[in-house]
Amino acid sequence: MLASLRIRNFALVESLSWDIPAGFVAITGETGAGKSILIGGLKLLLGERADRTAIRSGETECVVEAIAQLRDGSAIHELLVEAGVEPCEEGQLLLKRVISAGGAGRQFVNGSPATLALLRQIGDRLIDLHGPHDHQSLFAREAQTRLLDAFGGAGKPLADYREARAQWLALEREQAESDAAGQAREREIDLLAHQTAEIEAAALTADEEDALVARQQTGANAHRLKELAAGAAQAISEAEDSIESRMAEVARLIREIARLDPSQAELAARHTALADDIGDFARALATYGDHIDADPQSLAAAESRLDLLQTLKRKYGRSLAEVISFGDESAARLAALRAQAARGADLEAEIAAAKSRALAAGAKLSKLRAAAAPKLAAIVRGHLGDLGFLKAGFDIRLDSGEPAPDGLEAVEFVFAPNPGEPAQPLRSIASSGEISRVMLALKTALATQDEVPVLVFDEIDANVGGEVSHAVGAKMREIGARRQVLCITHLPQVASLATAHFVVSKSVIAGRTISALAAVSARERQEEIARMLGNRAGGAALAHARELLGA
Length: 551
Hints:
Among the domains are: 1-131 and 490-518, P-loop containing nucleotide triphosphate hydrolases (Rossmann fold); 207-318; 520-551, no CATH class. It has 17 helices and 15 strands. The protein has helices spanning 35-45, 75-83, 116-126, 141-152, 155-180, 182-202, 208-220, 222-238, 243-260, 266-291, 296-316, 320-386, 432-445, 466-480, 492-495, 522-533, 539-549, and strands at residues 2-10, 13-19, 24-29, 61-69, 92-100, 106-109, 112-113, 127-130, 393-404, 407-416, 424-425, 454-458, 484-488, 500-509, 512-519. A 6-stranded antiparallel beta sheet has the order 2-1-4-5-6-7, covered by helices on one side. A 6-stranded mixed beta sheet has the order 8-12-13-3-14-15, with helices on both faces. The chain has a 3-stranded antiparallel beta sheet with strand order 9-10-11. Strand 10 and strand 11 (424-425) form a beta hairpin.
């Protein structure tokens, strides 16, 4: 419910603070006193377009603020989370809008800056305002669908249908994306297949390049290396004056030294070891020379392998390790793309099955709506009869169409106020009085299902009189037991049935006209009802007022 409304510097209002009670609240007053200012303030909070000419003369801005008390399960809480504004504390929603004469307006929700779009979204869930040329939630076919579903208990079937439809559409999107990417994917598959095959065929190892380079260098100098090894071996052991032959002469001399000086006997042992080392060295040179591969084919193979490695590095990486890594990544990507291509065939069957499930869930929902629609229409027609439309027609039409978010059909409330005239959608009704009373009948019928907690009726009783006006008030009082109802009225029969009554008045103070709002009860309320009957001071009018009030 709306707990309070504060308006400052708006039209005739200098400063107005209104603590709003629950239930059915009537607002009355003389024509031109400023009742429409309250509606204008609410419209600003609903995010409607601001008219800067409404700022009170001489002021730079006007401010409208409201506090709403929300229940825990209100959809507005989730809306605030999605919008990223401050959550409600203890269920209190704070709304504020500032209209500036010389600049852009500002709006706030729970103290956080907000957009007009957010205000409109909150307003759609908080207040249903009915009056001439005002937006009315029940005119939207989506809202009518929600109300019919609430009346018929279609919450779970609708959720099941939406889930099945979402799965179906997700598969169709996947197929569309797959088809759109098909040619590009095939080209990429061909490229990756070539790249991975080329790298796999090379059978690379990360450290083979250094060994090949060494092998190439050796092979290119094989003949010279053999010559050098053979020359060194000949100088050691094969030439006439080789090192080994000279070592024999040295051995004879050392033996003579040892004979003459026994203390140098170890020189002979050292000579023997040196001679053995020279022999081993000579044999190593010979073995090295024998093992040098001077085969041109072997050298060509090494050079060819090195050329292949260089080619792969130019294409796929700066080192063999990078080339190997590129091959692994390409193979993984190739497998994924081939899996996507293979999935295309499976998608057809999955889409068909998902569509079948969605249509079956939609058919179940349609059956439930078809059963609920005539029942709800009959209840609404009964309320319309109470409101003066004794022979009016009201029906709920279900128009089949393509599977949409709300089902396989579109719901349309149609109304025929005059016998013999074709029924028309509610949004096509021209008379504001008829619109308002239809809304009232619908709200009464759906009082327990409708999630919008605050109803505002602006002169809903226009062109209504007699017993019908009493019925209008009774319907509002009935709705007021479950919802907060704010009604601007000129009918005493309606105002007398309200659970709370406020009077708008205007006065001239210091040369300025000011509108004010005050609660009335007891004698003051009787006098206001008498004024509405046409004679505030008349005894008969006061007596009639007391009768209407049950006093």
